[in-house]
Amino acid sequence: MPNIRPSSELRNKYNEISEFCHENAEPVYITKNGKGDLAVMSIETYERLVGKCELYKLLDEGLDAVKHGKVIRAEDAFYKLERNLDK
What we know:
The chain is of the alpha+beta class. It has helices spanning 7-12, 14-24, 43-67, 74-85; strands at residues 3-6, 28-32, 35-40.
């Protein structure tokens, strides 16, 4: 279940919110005037999330390359690499 807190707690209970984020590796949702405003998370959780997004982007690019025939067999790629190393 999401951890939802009013913005006043971000100001008044920062250490508690920080501890929760680090211990549980999940965000705390901050409301302002009763509506969602921010999501606060540890740097580690943020970096893991960004890393996943980057990985998904690379996987999508790879699938797109396969779909459009912009790939070569692994054996051919290694052969080209070895040939260039020998020069």
